[in-house]
Specification:
Strand content: 15-25%
Radius of gyration: 22 Å
Low-confidence stretches: none
Number of strands: 15
Oligomer: single chain
Number of helices: 13
Order of helices and strands: EEEHHEEEEHEHHHHEHHEEHHEHEHEE
CATH class of the largest domain: Alpha Beta
Helix content: 40-55%
Shape: globular
Strand order of the largest sheet: 2-1-4-5-6-7
Length: about 375
């Protein structure tokens, strides 16, 4: 559900901000350090319970305060006059506690808000999805699996809890083999379900993904292939039992869904070694926008897409491609940029966004 109204209190240098947002496109302009990214960060905190910038709660809270709060009025129709709205909110405290509410009622899991407010972020460091560790790519993959495959969370919780216990035993070199086999029996079904759900999601996404990659890379062949993290042609229980000696030697579970990845290649070469930084950013846009398109088609709901410094590392032609794709997707968009440059004028001409200006932590429309 898109954000109709947003209220931010004590998030970094945003001591208090109130916005009435466009349900389509919003452009947030301001100099470096003004609070533009903090505004996007606030939306992510509301949706996911954590920042995409860092996990240090004290540095996220406005200096001299003990908590931050973000609330939003969500609206599920194009017209903001719709009476089908719901209020969600989150408060995070310096002592580590979190309070989340939907329609003034406390909720136990942030995932309940995440389901109502699906948020996808692309920011300057998103090139790490191409260049960085498999963990970042798993997060991207699982963003889609979580929102589309509703049993995923249940299996993931079972898997991670059992994996923690198994790894604790592996670190203890004197652990009983029968205990390891017990946790293997618990891990295996959940692991196979996770792998199956990821595979199904990736297969369903493939059409949108190929179309998106062809749109952004007309002269190059860019492909994406999922890697399970284990030999899924056999049973995961056999894999675990066969790896006991190796896992004991290393002190952790060496194979499984927690080691999954997806491989991005350009003209047959690993994209991280072959593509320029600007092309890597474009690959991220291709993948994430394909996920957004797939989610909206399958679920019939709209994503809030947060683009921090959209013009960064993109030339005018590619920036225009991104904007035209955003126009086609009809998701809610929040874009930040430093000034009203020629690229920003092109963003304005293509998307007709509502304009916000941020200066010294103050947001004005």
């Amino acid at each position: 559900m898109p954000i109709h109204k947003l209220e931010i209190t004590n998030v970094r240098n945003l001591q208090r901000a109130q916005l009435e947002c466009s349900l389509q496109s919003n452009l947030i302009i301001g100099p470096n350090g003004s609070g533009k990214t903090s505004l996007l960060e606030s939306i992510v905190i509301l949706s996911q319970g954590k920042s995409f910038r860092n996990s240090q709660k004290k540095s996220t809270i406005f200096e001299g305060n003990t908590n931050l709060t973000v609330t939003a009025l969500l609206c599920d129709q194009i017209s903001s006059q719709s009476n089908h709205e719901i209020r969600v909110g989150i408060s995070k405290f310096a002592n580590g506690k979190t309070l989340a509410k939907i329609a003034s009622e406390k909720v136990q899991r942030i995932s309940e808000i995440t389901s109502l407010l699906p948020v996808c972020v692309i920011e300057p460091n998103s090139t790490e999805i191409v260049e960085g560790s498999p963990g970042l790519r798993r997060q991207v993959l699982d963003w889609g699996v979580f929102h589309v495959e509703h049993d995923f969370v249940k299996h993931w919780r079972v898997f991670t809890a059992a994996l923690k216990q198994r790894n604790a035993l592996l670190k203890n070199k004197k652990s009983d083999l029968s205990q390891l086999r017990y946790w293997n029996e618990l891990l295996a079904p959940a692991a196979e379900q996770i792998t199956q759900l990821r595979r199904r999601y990736f297969s369903d996404l493939e059409e949108e993904l190929i179309s998106s990659l062809q749109y952004f890379f007309q002269d190059d062949s860019v492909t994406v292939e999922i890697l399970d993290g284990w030999d899924s042609t056999a049973s995961f229980l056999d894999c675990l039992n066969g790896n006991i000696e190796k896992d004991q030697r290393y002190g952790f579970t060496t194979e499984g869904p927690h080691k999954a990845d997806f491989e991005i290649r350009s003209n047959g070469y690993l994209a991280k070694d072959y593509l320029s930084r600007g092309q890597k950013k474009l690959a991220v846009y291709a993948i994430r926008l394909a996920q957004v398109a797939h989610y909206q088609k399958v679920c019939g709901k709209r994503v809030s897409l947060l683009l921090d410094d959209l013009p960064s590392e993109l030339d005018k032609s590619n920036c225009e491609k991104v904007c035209k794709e955003l126009q086609r997707l009809e998701c809610q968009v929040f874009i930040t940029s430093i000034d009203t440059s020629n690229l920003n004028n092109m963003i304005i001409d293509t998307l007709s966004p509502k304009l916000f200006h941020v200066k010294h932590g103050t947001v004005t429309a």
